[in-house]
């Protein structure tokens, strides 16, 4: 792993392989280790950069709110430091919100955009209220919050099919610092609508949505992509497709990148 300093904040990232660059952006309570299995399908052809976002994994917190734009600015600073111009972005869930913020702020640096179990819409009013409730729970007992939040991400069969992977995922999530959790909840709560990017941006886009995703409902994504020039794939399973559908998403992503990179 490597360290980079962004506004006096230590950022942890890995950098491997050669070729066009893919920037992997994990979701809430996740970290760069979540991409390990997927990376093994990609790193023969591409340079893969996987970052621990602000307040996640081994990266420090930057503030009391980490907006999607803060995270995108940090990613832009990292690729600038590495002297990279264009990258393909792959974002899971909150990582997709951040990929969209990056794409809006730095369009010249985007080769292609892949959203996994993510959405271009902002939080609904109800969701914002739930974020505030979550922040109250986190302040009282962040471990209990993290355990509950991670269990709810998976489809019902996943707990029997992938018990070890889900336990490893939960153990990683439990390492997320309290300030990092709250700063992300606050940041996701105030994120803006970026649906226009799905319709009007010039680079190739792939959206992968899961049938039983309880965090990002499939019907919402179907509405967002209607009429947009995107490759849209629906897969079985719940929110964490990198665990539940790893071979399937690897094959969808590899063939999309082959055509579009
Ligand atoms: C994530 O998995 O990144 C989050 O659950 C997304 C969200 O809460 O909106």
UniProtKB/TrEMBL annotation:
The keyword DNA repair does not apply. InterPro entries: AB_hydrolase_1, AB_hydrolase_fold, AB_hydrolase_sf. Residues 21-244 form the AB hydrolase-1 domain. Gene3D superfamilies: alpha/beta hydrolase. GO terms for molecular function: hydrolase activity. The keyword Methyltransferase does not apply. It comes from the Bacteria. Keywords: Hydrolase. Coiled coil: none annotated. PANTHER family: MONOACYLGLYCEROL LIPASE (PTHR43798). This is Alpha/beta hydrolase. It comes from Paenimyroides baculatum. The lineage of its organism: Bacteria, Pseudomonadati, Bacteroidota, Flavobacteriia, Flavobacteriales.
């Amino acid at each position: 792993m490597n360290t980079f300093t962004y506004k006096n904040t230590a950022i942890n990232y890995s950098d491997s392989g050669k070729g066009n660059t893919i920037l992997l952006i994990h979701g809430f309570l996740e970290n760069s280790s979540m991409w390990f299995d997927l990376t093994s399908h990609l790193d023969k052809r591409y340079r893969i950069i996987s970052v621990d976002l602000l307040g996640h994994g081994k990266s420090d917190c930057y503030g009391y709110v980490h907006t999607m734009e803060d995270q995108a600015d940090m990613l832009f600073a990292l690729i600038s430091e590495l002297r990279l111009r264009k990258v393909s972005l792959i974002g899971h869930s909150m990582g997709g919100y951040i990929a969209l913020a990056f794409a809006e702020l730095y369009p010249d640096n985007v080769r292609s955009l892949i959203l996994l179990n993510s959405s271009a819409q902002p939080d609904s009013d109800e969701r914002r209220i739930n974020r505030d409730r979550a922040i109250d729970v986190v302040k009282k007992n962040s471990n209990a919050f993290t355990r509950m939040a991670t269990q709810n991400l998976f489809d019902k069969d996943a707990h029997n099919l992938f018990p070890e992977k889900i336990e490893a995922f939960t153990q990683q999530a439990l390492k997320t610092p309290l300030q990092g959790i709250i700063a992300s909840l606050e940041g996701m709560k105030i994120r803006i609508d970026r649906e226009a990017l799905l319709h009007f941006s010039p680079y190739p886009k792939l959206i992968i949505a899961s049938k039983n995703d309880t965090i990002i409902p499939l019907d919402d994504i179907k509405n967002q992509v209607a009429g947009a020039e995107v490759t849209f794939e629906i897969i079985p399973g719940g929110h964490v497709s990198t665990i539940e559908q790893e071979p399937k998403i690897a094959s969808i992503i590899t063939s999309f990148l082959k055509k579009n990179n």
